Amino acid sequence: MKKKSHFSWGSCLAALALIFCLLLLGWVPKADAKMYRMKIQSAYPHGDLSMELLKEFAASAEKRSNGQIKIAVFAEPELVPWEQLFEATKKGTLDMMHGVGAMWGGVVPIGEIEFGLPYMWANPGGKTVKENSEIVRGFFFGSGLVDLLRQEYGKQDLYWLDMHSYGELFTMATQCFETCEDIKGKKFRVEGAWMDFYNNLGARGTYISGMDAYMGLKLGTIDASQWDVSCITGLKWHEVAPYRIMGGMHDVIPGHIVVNMETWKDLPPDLQQALIGAAEDYFHILNDTYMKEMEKVEALKKQGKITYCYLNQSCLDKYRQTSYALWDEMAKRDPAVAKGVQLVKEWRKTLD
Question: How many other C-beta atoms can be found within 10 angstroms of the C-beta atom of residue 136?
């Protein structure tokens, strides 16, 4: 017996109509949805808030790319120590790095302008940590500084993706400093040109990894160290350095995510946009989180576990004068730095 055919012109037309409707709605069948697996390492250890929240950046990138971008997150020094992070990203051993420009200022001098020269990002006009960070971000993207950063990092085969903020600067010390005489000869763990700044004040600027700072403060090999609020809420430095030095030096701390240029160029435009969007999401996530962390600091202060030490006016004046002199000194070292300093000076005039 001849079998009946199940073919139906009606069902065929219905299927074609469905595909046509899906195409009108923007659905395009992907024959090859390539997966992009990436690695990012932070310059900061576990316990640092921004490092721990990089998982949110990775999650946002995966969501925005419809699962095509998957990013594995590592802390310092899980893959490489911080001093090898720049070179590892440049060579493509890592796809991305997370840190502050001052760490690479010896290779990319404009990094000193990101974070940064003292007083550059101090008190930009907001009432909260979050508002100040948003003001600084507005300057980065509205002044031409981002174009300058991308140009200079591009010379190192790196793509400067975006900035984020670590809130305001914290300087924690093993004793209370109230005058510039108090800090003379004291060892401050800092980054980049901040070493020049403290040296010019008669103190001693030095650098050790954030992972080693707690023990350095405990053993007295350093007297003070700067970081963001997670030095208290994550790294617990206040247990060995309970004095927060106050007065004028509470700059917003801009950080960045930088991508290996080959990795960046390998991404199609829609996935580049997904990564850009994820970096902006990360900026806002950090801002909201740091606001909550500041509340924890105030609670510890009320409990007597942290003491605020205010520098006197004479010392604050000296801090400011020393900072501005350093801006001009750094501007003489590199044309891009000079251009960046000029952009900042013009911007800060509008804030006064």
Answer: 22
C-alpha 152: how far from chain center: 17
For the entire predicted model, the pTM comes to: 0.86
Residue whose C-alpha is closest to residue 227's, from 247, 211, 203: 211
Q: Which helix (H) or strand (E) holds 85?
A: helix 85-91
Q: What domains lie within the chain, and their CATH numbers?
A: 36-351 (3.40.190.170)
Q: Which of 195, 169, 173 is nearest to 183 (CA)?
A: 173
- DSSP type of residue 250: -
pLDDT tens digits for range 301-351? 999 999 999 999 999 999 999 999 999 999 999 999 999 999 999 999 998
Exposed, middle or buried by CB within 10 Å (0-12, 13-18, 19+), for 286? buried
Per-residue pLDDT tens digits for 64-116: 999 999 999 999 999 999 999 999 999 999 999 999 999 999 999 999 999 98
Helices (H) and strands (E) in the chain, counts: 15, 11
